[in-house]
Write a structure and sequence with these properties.
248 residues, alpha/beta, 8-stranded mixed beta sheet, 8 strands, 16% strand, globular, binds NADP nicotinamide-adenine-dinucleotide phosphate, oxidoreductase activity, NAD(P)-bd_dom_sf, Fungal_SecMetab_SDRs
Length: 248
Amino acid sequence: MSESTIVLITGANQGIGYATAKTIASHPNYHVIMACRNLSKGYEACSQLETAGIKGTLSVVQLDVEDDISISKAVHSVSNEFGRIDVFISNAGTLSPGSTGRDKIGKIFSTNVFGAMLATEAFIPLLLKSTHPCLIQISSALGSLVLASDANNAKSSETWDEYRMSKAALNMMTIQMHKRLKNQKVRVFAFCPGLVRSNLRGVSEEAVTAQGNAGDPMESANALLDIIVGRRDKDAGKFVHKDGCYPW
Ligand SMILES: NC(=O)c1ccc[n+]([C@@H]2O[C@H](COP(=O)([O-])OP(=O)(O)OC[C@H]3O[C@@H](n4cnc5c(N)ncnc54)[C@H](OP(=O)(O)O)[C@@H]3O)[C@@H](O)[C@H]2O)c1
């Protein structure tokens, strides 16, 4: 069995997932499994990181969190190759820009809630084989019921309803998983990466940068590394961000 810490990241080919793979794999003794729904995008992202001079190791597995067959093949492949995972980062997510109505809410919930839950549940048996397991759900402050219902809070805008609802559901799932897994020593977190540059909101410069307001996804990645190495263990079971915790 590998001596490295094995970290699986869903949606690792771009954005926060990619930045996180880069940050973790820049340290020796880590192996990052880049789980991507599109294998060619996954291999391209992986080779970009390998040519950037990482110190850890990388591999790619096909994983579409909306496809049960893809999920079970990915579990099988990771189980055969590694026998366990130490960290599962459930990062794949969407805002489904451009869609409307039932299509929009359906797509957002299919990825951010059903996909996150079913992919996570499928990998939990491999996580339980770790001696220091960690499970992180990438959420958003926009999913906080407390912040959304506080009219004075900057995060309470009247926008992103479907996305907010999906992340609120993801947060509930995280609370439930924490209760179920804490006696098995799994450190469970919901994590808000902050408003950072990515294609989540669309591919125009305005959307990527959130009108110039978005920060660097490498900062989110560094905060995730803090969680993985244990610097945030006192916050297990909570909704964390890089500088503290959000109310649910
Ligand atoms: N960026 C922000 O400001 C921000 C703020 C708060 C929370 N978040 C959260 O951070 C996470 C990452 O978002 P991001 O900003 O990095 O966005 P992004 O650049 O759009 O990346 C999203 C990733 O998820 C993957 N993905 C989408 N649907 C998938 C599916 N069905 N199966 C597997 N992978 C799938 C995408 O794959 P493809 O490349 O194949 O599309 C991509 O790799 C999301 O959960 C998002 O809600 C982001």
